[in-house]
Design brief:
By secondary structure, the protein is α+β, with helices and mostly antiparallel strands. About 50% of the residues lie in helices and about 20% in strands. Among the domains are: about 120 residues, PAS domain (Beta-Lactamase, 2-Layer Sandwich); about 90 residues; about 150 residues, Heat Shock Protein 90. A hairpin with a 5-residue loop joins strand 6 and strand 7. The relative contact order is 0.06.
Amino acid sequence: MTEETATGAFSPKAGSARSEGLAHRHTKLARQRGPAAWRTFTVIAGIAAALGLLALMFLLGVFRDQATERARVATTGMAEMVDGWFSHYAPLPDLLARDPRVISALSNEIASADLGWLNRELAVWKDATLTSDIYLMATDGTTVAASNAGTEVSFVGQNFSFRPYFQQAMKGETGRLFALGTTSGLRGYYLSAPVRDDGRIVGVAVIKISIDGLELAMGNVPYGAFVTDETGVVIISNIEALRLSSLGALSPQDRAEITRTRRFDLDRVEPATITSTGSWGPERPLVRAPAKEDGQDRTYLHLTEPLTQNPWTLHLLYDAAAARAAALTWSLVAFSTGLATLAMTALALGRRRRLIERLSERERTARELERRVAVRTAALETEVKERRTAETTLRQTQHELVQAGKLAALGQMSAALSHEFNQPLTAIRTYVENAVAFQQAGKQERASDNLERVLRLTERMAQLSKHLNRFARKSDNDLHEIEIDNVIDEALALLSGRVQRSETEVAREGERGIVVLGGAVRLQHVAMNLIGNAIDAVPDDRTPCITIRTTADEDRAQLIVEDNGTGIPDDLADRIFDPFFTTKEVGRGLGLGLSICYNIVHDFGGTMAAETRGEGGARVTVTLRLAKPKGFPS
């Protein structure tokens, strides 16, 4: 080959002609492949749609099975909760029937007018056992004593011999009945036991329990639930629209029995608004029923579980729409994935066609730029996700530590109350042993004196327990009118063990009867924390002296707690309310007490400050809003 030939073959003009020819051939080839590309597109679209449909059918079955299993577990758990609630009250009638005063009052047929003392005792027992009513019936069914004596709905003098629980008790059996009260008109669960004197039945002891508390507990679960009796009547339900409705038509025998025993007003018993809509398979029926939240009809999986304490049945309604929605969502994900794959394939074909048509370096540069943007975007998304995960973990850890601080405070308080219960329990045992001895010796007056002492001790223990219950109860976020004196009294009562053991001198000063806005339980937590910190702040070599002062000005009230400890160091004053900051020894605190108190007071619209007193010791001042500013008309 000559030099000219070689130069001409590789000249710019020759290269340009070759490029144009190549571009022309590729463009022609792309036009020929156009119909084939659309056929491929159609096939891929069909496959994606088929896969989406198969995924829907498969996932629907999977989610239905999972929903059924969760519903069965929830049904069993709910049944156990209902059985446990009723078994809690089961021993009470028999305990009441064994009381010597009850036996004496019924066996001697004392007139109702002379049983005022017994009415008062029954009222005390009713409050202590959290029941609705307690009453005693003579052998003819007449009520001779009741906890509601003297009220507009008093049972005294009423005859309930028509009730099955009375008839069962007169046969020597334990009576059980769910019915509407003939006097009060309120739903209730009745338990009865025979009162025997030397083997002879002299009357019946009856306890009525309101089921409002049970329905409130059932209302906290995310499912609709109700209980039917042996006749199919809904007697308990967290769905208000279903209460006292019937799942089926009542038989003539059931209607006659309900009328005879006056269990319900048959005019109020209407058919339940529950209709069958099919099933998910054997023992998995679907029904339309009103929702617990708003009463609107929805489709539910309907499962049942027999109860053990009574011949009743628990019904649970599990939202079927959730399973369908989950299956549809995942099916859409699968279908969307197929469409995304199809779109990516079409995009690749388009890019290939443009690449052939243009033969430009600019296209490759653009693709490289897109790739880099995608990589950077993915990196940024990963970084954002990692930061969100870290923030969530941090918030959860802080929440758990705050809860641990609260539980630690409650545990210390419970230990103190346990110490307070030991001495009364020992005294009760001694008095009961003496009462038994006096009873056997025929010294009734001495025995009664010992039993009255036992009653006084149990009242004291009940007051301590009531304080602890109020402190442990979950508080709401609403603000109420609260008298500061009551909060301080209850806090001192719960801390009485620590005050006595540490020989702390507590002084109360300032105004009384101040009423502020806040939450009783949360404000009590603040008071207990401040008093407890004041006790801990005093060194072991001196006697703790605490001053609690309450004052009020135009629209604000102050709760001030002072101690004779070492005070607050200047370098720590700014950090005293920070979370996890503590000056106590390791193991004696998490450093969350004052931080929690600070946030509680802030939620009440108040402020909290700490300082060192001039004469030594620390002073913590809590400022709260008065319920009614001074000078404001009542």
